[in-house]
Design goal:
With 481 residues, the chain is an all-alpha fold. It has a domain at 381-478. 65% of the residues lie in helices and 1% in strands. The protein is built from 22 helices and two strands. α10 runs antiparallel to α11, α12 (232-245) runs parallel beside α15 and α17 crosses α18 (385-411). The longest helix has 27 residues, at 385-411.
Amino acid sequence: MWQPVLMINGFLIAIIGLSMLVPAAYDVAFSNLKWSPFLTAALIAVFSGLALFLGNRMKINKITLKQGFLITVVGWVSVCCFATIPFMLYGACDSLADAFFETISGLTTTGGTIFADVEKLPKSILLWRSILNAVGGLGIVIFAVAMLPFLGIGGMQIFQRENSDVNEKFMPKFSYIAKRIVIVQVILIFVCFLCLCLAGMGKFDALNHAMATIATGGLSTKNASVGYFNSVSIEMIIMLFMILGSLPMTFYIVLWQRKDWKEFGTSQIWAFLKILVIYILATSVYLTYIGVYDWWRAVRYSSFNIISVVTTTGFVSTDYNLWGSWVVIPFIIFAMTGGCTGSTSGSIKILRWQVLFAYIKRAFVVSTEPNRVVPLKVGNTPTDMSVVSSVFVLFAGFILSIAFMSCLVTLDGYDLEIALSSVVACISNSGPGAGSLIGPAGNYGSLSDFTKWVLSITMLLGRLEVITVVTVLTKSFWTKN
């Protein structure tokens, strides 16, 4: 069972090792270094990855379901471990817990950081953090491209389950999907980069923020995040591209093929956009009512920060904790909303919420009219009860994980606000928590190593939507049939 798992993971480790050559090249070209720590890290990762790949190379006719779970979980853990090496070699982090937290925060596109002053970090480290965001946002695609020679049809089925917004086989080949999503991501990053440059942002900052924005990752090059620039035009550009990064990647391919703008009318996209508008208007009205801002400033700051939280990006334009203690609960709700299925955003995706509410609505009707046949639909699409079952399992997994991980954090001496908000921020991959310690003006650096490990595991649970990780840890998974 393990041979194909090790071979494929070796391939993934080699890929992350090759990506280290980019910040290594920046070190050599612009930092007057003859040898970069990133070169050492790249050699370790590429050598280890190729050794695993070649040492376990085999012809794979079929990947079993158990192997698929192992490939996913072991792949994410192993890539995170090797991506940690540059932080340690550079001496940027005080402990392995710090380095692992920063790495997994980047790869899971969470956007939380342990650094109190990111502006003092070497630019190659800042670039590496943004690359981790971009790689993490493309995680399913990199996985797909890596698996392509080995999985064949099975890989296509995995991809379709991850992108349940696609209801028809408009792309018959797995490689077609993977390659075009990579192209879409690169185009979006490039266009975002150009727009930010035109808005007055420096090229280095623009490149880093473009990668973090499209990946909905949120790791900034500035301590005050996007608020550092204090620019309406920059905030509007980033808002737009955070939304674009939260739409299904396959949506762009369909749009590209059919040249039909009616694709914007899909129920999931409309629901996502309507929820954003409702959240923003409600918050803006309240901020104006209590006198925190005038109307237009309320719209400006609530728009950016709510879009950032709902898309699970993690950028901030102001310290929204200053709005009052009431923000804690609404922002937890915002963080748990999530973007569209098949996008780079995290949390519980909009489509899952639609399925849940469609089922609840149907249950209300059936409870008063038990003989009435009420089809379960999301928008105009009939939905099978097996989908409803999987959604309820996912919700249960998220809730139980939040409760358990919050208890672990409180056992480490932190109050309930810090424990709950940090766990929700990490499992939803949305970044900043609540309060002065881990809020938009704070960071996770002052937390204990134990809590950082707990939150690192929580980020991985959120990125893999809980069930994948928990399944691998069950006794039945390891029982031979």
